[in-house]
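Problem 12. The chain below contains 366 residues. Write out its predicted structure in token notation.
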Amino acid sequence: MMAGQGWILAIFAVVAAAALALAYHLGRRSRGQAPAEMSQLLDAAEKLRTAQAELAGRMQQSETSVNERLESLAKRLGDGLTQHTEKTGETLKGLHERLAVIDSAQKNITDLSQQMVGLQDILSNKQARGAFGEIQLHDLVTGALPPTAYEFQATLSNGKRADCLLKLPNPPGSIAIDSKFPLESYEKLRAAGDDAAKAQAGREFSVAVRKHVLDIAERYIVAGETAESALMFLPSEAIYAELHANFRNVVEESFKRRVWIVSPTTLMATLTTVRAVLKDALMREQAGVIQQEVIRLLEDVGRLDKRVDSLEGHFGQAQKDIREIRVSADKVVKRGAKIDELQFDDEGAADEVATPAPPRLKEVEG
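Solution.
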């Protein structure tokens, strides 16, 4: 816009210069013409200069206004850019924090994946898998029961060693827990792709679990030593759910063999029941002790009653003896009084009392 204003000023300057040159040329060529025309030209040139000056002032004012507007616009643009930069910085900062959280979560997922791979490696080995089940069983039992209510790796009279033996009073007696579980057949069942493979894996899984149930029934149910049942602990809720959902025949077989299949959740409920049984047995035992002490206390009270009766008899005899002593003492006092009367009855007649009067002596004796 400033360039357009410059061009307009230049055009007015050229027009004014041309007018002045034309006037000067005409003046030289025709000096003899009337001065009226020259006066008109000079007036026109003066008006042109005035218009030029006025236009220059307006152009200057317009330029100042435009500059102010441009400065205001530049300030607004600068403020807007500053705010936008700040908001962009805050957004980038939040994005950086979110990326850090995502990186941390990704790291945790990676670590968890590695741990899961390690757990799969552990469970792929039978001995390691048994140790894993025993550790989980140990945590559950020690967290629910007092130390006197269980024993780990307990050896029975038949030489078999149970992973855990719950010591319960008769009935029902001690209950053995086995913590091994058939993982290979279950993994094969999960990995089966078609129906035929699933059916074959299901049969193998059923046979493996049934064999394990029979082994527990033969090894850990000992007549006269343990309870008539035992527990098969599955440290996997998934296997427990699979058994009860799709292999009811195996579960029913375990019922017949009195081998109760438990998961971590159901084992905790069983241990809670065992704790209640132990508490009830302890209360009954303490009640028996209290009853025996009450019987002995009653016997002591009976003996005390007899002794009080005997003491009361002794006190009665003593009171009788005291009364008899009192009677004898009264008689002695009375006799002493009578004797005193005989000695001091008549002082002036001492000569006459040479011989005691028999009647008075008889009176005293009476």
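Discussion. DSSP finds nine helices and five strands in the chain. Students who got a different answer should revisit the alignment rule from Section 12.3.
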